[in-house]
Amino acid sequence: MKVFTIKRSKWARAGINGESELKNSEGGMCCLGFYLNSCRVSQTQLLGHAAPENVQEFIPKQAKWLLTDSQMGYHSDSSDSNTLMLINDKSSSENVREDAIAKMFAAHGVKVNFTD
Fold first, then answer.
1. DSSP letter (8 states) at residue 114
2. Mean pLDDT estimate for the chain
3. Contact call for residues 55 and 49 (beta carbons, < 8 A)
4. CA–CA gap between residue 109 and residue 24 (Å, rounded)
5. What's the CA gap between 50 and 30, in Å, rounded?
6. In this predicted model, what pLDDT tens digit does every residue of 81-101 receive, in sequence order?
7. What's the CA gap between 8 and 50, in Å, rounded?
8. 3-class SS at 36?
9. C-alpha to C-alpha distance for 25 and 4, rounded to whole angstroms
10. Which of 32, 9, 10, 8 is nearest to 22 (CA)?
């Protein structure tokens, strides 16, 4: 099972730590950015991109589930999209966000740890 860590102090969500991008100009990263970075997609490659589709040429096989490009034969689950909307909803608590992320990644065989 793949395991990765999200640093809360750098986690971009719901207006916290900058724009919710794979890697934003303020140094924050969304949960997908942390995951892709753990899959060896560099922070430079992630910088300024909002979605995995924008960096699909760098995404390794184990992370292809993130892509929604039907022409490439990959389809992100609609429940994943709902989770991402929940994470960026300013009315969601941190516990709700973290639980939703853990469940989303677990459904794809990935364990998430949260630190600081």
1. E
2. 89
3. yes
4. 27
5. 9
6. 788 888 889 999 999 999 999
7. 19
8. helix
9. 22
10. 32
If you search the block for the tokens 């986690």, which residue do you land on? 11
**For residue 71, with 0-12 CB atoms within 10 Å meaning exposed, 13-18 middle and 19 or more buried, which class applies?**
exposed
- What is the structure's pLDDT at 80? 75
Tell me the whole-structure pTM to 2 decimals.
Answer: 0.89
Q: 104: which DSSP letter?
A: H
Rg (CA), the chain: 13
Amino acid at 20: S
| CB neighbourhood size of 37 (10 A) | 17
Q: 111: part of which helix (H) or strand (E)?
A: strand 110-115
Pick the closest to residue 39 from 18, 16, 62, 67 (CA basis). Answer: 62
DSSP string for 56-89? GGG--GGGGGG---GGGT----HHHHHHHHHHT-
Separation of alpha carbons 81 and 61, rounded Å: 20
Q: Which two tokens stand for residue 77?
A: 């689950």
- Other CB atoms within a 10 A radius of the CB of residue 9 amount to 11
